Amino acid sequence: MSVGKWFRSSPVVKKISKYLTKRILSELKKKQKKDSAAYEEFWSQFGKVLKRGTI
Question: Distance of alpha carbon 15 from its chain centroid, rounded?
């Protein structure tokens, strides 16, 4: 089994990935509420990359 295939099928990696996704989305929501101008700047620079990573 290749390393990439192991990572995709590992329950531990899936759990970590799910947790990190929730945490990142939570932090982005906080940032958006706290400082919308900084959030918009961040999103304009990294939004496409983040969207691609969640697909």
Answer: 13
